[in-house]
What we know:
- The complex is a heterodimer of chains A (261) and B (385).
- Chain A is 38% helix and 13% strand.
- Chain A is elongated and about 120 Å long.
- By secondary structure, chain A is an alpha+beta fold.
- By secondary structure, chain B is an all-alpha fold.
- In chain B, 70% of the residues lie in helices and 0% in strands.
- Chain B has helices spanning 2-32, 34-37, 48-60, 63-73, 83-104, 113-116, 123-149, 153-161, 163-183, 201-227, 234-248, 264-285, 287-290, 293-323, 331-354, 374-379.
- In chain B, helix 10 packs antiparallel against helix 11.
- The longest helix of chain B is centred in the first third of the chain and has 31 residues, at 2-32.
- Classes of the chains: A alpha+beta (261), B mainly alpha (385).
Amino acid sequence: MVTKKALLIDLTMCIGCNSCQEACKKVNGLPEGEEKSLSATAYTALEEHGDVFVRRMCQHCVDPSCVSVCPVGAFTKTPEGPVLYDESKCIGCRYCIQACPFQVPRYEWGSNYPRVQKCRFCAERVKSGLQPACAEACPTGATKFGNRDDLIREAYERMNAESGKYVNKVYGIDEVGGTSILYLSAVPFEELGFKTNLENTALPMHTWNALSKIPGVVAVGGVFLYGIWWITNRRNEVQEYERQQETAEDRANRHDDSEQR
Amino acid sequence: MKNYLKAVTFWKAVAGIILAAGVYVTIFRFTQGLGATTNLSDQFPWGLWIGFDVLCGVGLAAGGFTLATIVYIFNIKRFEPIVRPTILTAFLGYLLVIVALLYDLGRPLQLWHAIIMWNPQSVMFEVAWCVILYTTVLAFEFSPVVFEKFGMVKVQNVVKRFMLPLIIIGVILSTLHQSSLGSLYLIVPEKLYGLWYSAYLPIFFYVSAIAVGCAMIIFESFLSARAFKKGLEMPLLAEISRIGVLMLAVYLTTNFGLLFIPRTETYLYWVEIVVGVIAPLILLSYRRVRETNGGLFAGATMIIVGFILNRMNISITGMEASAGVSYFPSWMEITVTMMVVTAGFVVFAFAVKYLPVFKHEEHIRRPALDWQSDLEFISQPAYHE
């Protein structure tokens, strides 16, 4: 059993040095230069909300919407946690961008053969036992890599150690069924641009409720439609037959009449 | 006659201009990319092309499976005279949806991936398959018209033998994807505004598709009557309108708490409901109204306008608040949409001109419908056109 990996991002410890973005761009071969928001060339970015830096990136949901909506299965959820995108499969429908509850995926709008771009959780590094480049680069420990269960425990320990320092919530434990990126904050999350209206159930469940009814619709629909056709067709046939009989009788009668005459 | 020619030339000119602009934008789109062509963004990835060309396009083509059900499943044969133009419209509609999709997709040349790379969890996957299969079914449903034109009686008869299973498959496929277009939005409960978001979206999409399918049959019949100088099947159309009205009555919101909050969404929702549901519901339930040309046409037009509003509200207006940006299509997006609609009209006109679309099987009308007896019918020499 592979242990689920995660990142714990403690917003109180972030000094906004941007080392995470620099390391990320280097390891992913993206063009250099600081960017203040997510883009097709920035898989992570520090958004300033007052004096708090909020590190944005793909949340690597436990049950990701993008994986469920992609018609060609270009997105996969690896056992370790990373959600990966395979550009060779992508047809460019952008349903992933539409469906992502965190508005993370970015599109190469300027390209004529565009890709969806987002954080890969340094999947290859994680698989070989290393930590993601951003966690390694963070000088203050604001971004910490580890097992998801361990990090959740640590988050609560930090909250208990200094009561009143943090708001009473670890963002990412329950949101849309849980994510691989966990946040601790001293400022209420809704003031930092976090989506706080998200459900605690995984969003693909909504779709599955409808999709799972398809076999039933096909079976019942097929039988129902054929049944209606059989009944209405039979009715028409009977009517036609009766009419035939009547005309035949009429004829016979007429024939009799003429013979009598 | 002179006036008639003038009118035709005017509309031909308009169509020509739109198609020419469309060709320019097509070249621009496929050389410069989506970013330069559209007003789409990461915050607003689906715009006019998905909202109108796909969601409305598929819905407006719903007349095909609605009428196929009436005529072939319920065996109500008196509707047969309007089957062919309706199937043709549906077939063209789906072809144009696929064309529009090629503009919208970032990697249109990989569209075929949907056939071999499966993700059964995805609504989009299901819609893609249904649209591919149903377009094929529509091609078969329309094929007898083409075979008849070229006198291929044998082939025509083979297709006819498979008509019932084809129709059943077509109705099931339509049921699945018309509803699934609504299911596309089930996964964004926190993004789509509450007046439109509902767990019943697939059902709402399905019933409104049937309603607008009926309205489109009426609407098209009027336009065809005008353009091709043919009579109207008024009693049939009036009956069709009653089916449409029945379907409208099911249409609602599930979020009554939001009905009276003063916001843009509320106003648009009310316009949609009043124009598209309540007004035609009242109008068309009066025999006096639905049995006059003007009343029936107005009712059908209202249903269509309301339907388009509904799909645009769901795909665009209802998503704007959560996206945090406002979206209005670029002129090039609008041009492509106009080009697609115009292409539909032009191809329809050509098809009507060269194929027996409006001459429906009068020569093999079921004898039971005639005053003649079967015996007399059989003793007659075979009648060919």
